[in-house]
Amino acid sequence: MEERTLFDRIHEALDVEPRPGAYERLRTALASKRVKPQRWPAFPMRSPKLGLRLAAVMTVVVLAIAAAAAFLVTHPVADRETPADSERAIAAYKLMLYDDYIKIPDPGIESVCFGNQFAACDADVSLRIPVVNQIQNDLNRLEPPARFAVAVGQMRRHNALQLTGLNAVLAASRAQDAAGMDRSVAAVVSGRPWMDAMFTGVLSSQQGTVATYLGSVRNEKRNLDLCVECQDLAGQNQITCTGSQATSCQALLQGTAARVGSFQRAVVLVAAPSSMTTKDNRLQLDLARADTALVTMAEALSAGDQAGFNAGRASLQQAMAAVNVDAADILNG
To answer: What is the CATH number of the domain that holds 286?
Structure first.
């Protein structure tokens, strides 16, 4: 079957209207970018570029479209009213997010917005802001399938921070404030890895069995237990983040955010079987609490606000303790 025909039939069957130019963007992305096998990295809070989008291109096309096509072979298309958590609805939601994801300009903002490149930065960021706005609108306007509900809630939060950061970059660029532009670019770059990882986690998500889900949780729990930064940050020792000590606090945040984010992605990538959804939802909610606390701490650290950092850390300590209980309940139940 011709590619364009397959593309149109899948969108028609899923009752999803493709956005103008979606097929052309997909063909361009597939034709122009070479996809290499990748390992999912433990993402730091500051990273110049992960390249996860390249791996997502083929993964999403093969998994989402093949799953949708297989579903349509065995199910009638006439009934357009489908439950929010049906395979058809999940495939449609993935297609919507994928269409947003491939619009994100590549390479990253840091390749343009540095030094005194004010005009180039202005032009680049002016292209990025509408894309981030569209992502936010789509995340807000549609109720996600239950397996993505917690993750999408955090995506809204992180994407809103990306929008705030991009607007700050644009304002600094237009004011020709090089130092302010550098600070704002750093904030945007630090938030990009989490969004990349969660986008690809949702887009590549598949229903797990009891064995595959438990294996995923067991692996992430083991990595969390081995995370020295996590133990230090969620422990009881006093941590001071003023002056030269701010660098060590940044390292603690990076290591902890990498592990928490990896766990968040893992329980979306391998969705819990129906018999374990209640426990899984509790785990996802507590991971989201930990993620929110880490964002609060990062903002406080950037502002030199020790009291705000301490408040965020107290929330993190509670959330991480709950995550450990949740994971143990899943693995030992």
So the answer is: 1.20.1440
